[in-house]
Amino acid sequence: TVNEKKYIKPNKERADIAIKLIWLVMLIEIISATSSFFQYRLLMKISKGEIISVQVANANDTREQIVAIVYLIVFFISGITFIKWFRRAYYNLGVRTKTNYTEGWAAGAWFVPIISLFRPVQIMNELWDKTSKLISEKTNTPTTSRPVIIGIWWALWILSHFIGRYVLKLGMKAETIDDYINSTVGDMVISILGIPLAIITVLIINSYSKKEEELARIEKQILEETLSND
Description:
Blueprint: H1 12-47, H2 54-96, H3 105-108, H4 119-139, H5 149-173, H6 177-229
Helix pairs in contact: 1-2, 1-6, 2-4, 4-6, 5-6
C-alpha cells in the first residue's frame, strides 16, 4: 500500500446518509419554488393595483421566511454529510494509490475562494479515473470512461452558485415592486435548478459508491486467494 499505517474505512453509510439528505433538499426546493410562485402571483396583483389585505401579505411573508430557514438548515446539514462522504472517498483512494492532493483538500476546497470553483470537480474526476484504473488493473478489464454527468453536475453547481449570489444582492437592494418581482423570479429559477442538481448529485454518489464497493470486493477476493495459496 501507499501508506501502511492507513487502512480503508467504510464509506457506504456516509453515502446513504448524504443521498437521503440530498433528496430532502430537493423536496424543499420544490416547496420553495411553489412558495415563490405564490409570492410572484401576489406581487403581480399588487403591481396591477389590486388591494391585498395585511393578513394575506403577512401570511405570505411568514411562509417565505419559514421555507427559507428550513432550507438553509437542511442544505447546511446536507452539505456537511456530502463533504464527509467526499473526504472519506478521497482518503480511501489515497490509501490505495497516490493522489494529486491531500485528503484535507476534499473538504477544504469547497470553502476557499476561487479554488472552490474548480478543485472539487478535479478531485471528483480523480476519484472516478483512479478508482476505475485500479479496478481495471486488478481485473485485467478495460478502464471505464468518466461519465459526462460529472461535467453537467459541476456546471449546474457553478450556475446555481452565481445566480444565487446575484439574486441575494437583488433581494437585499429591492425597493420597488418590480425589484421584488425580479428577485422572486430569481428565487424560483434557483429552486428549479436545484431539482436536477440534486438528482444528478445522487446519481454520482450512488455510481461512485458502487465503484468503491466493487473495488473493495475485488481486493478482498484477491487477498483471500493469496492467503489460500499460501
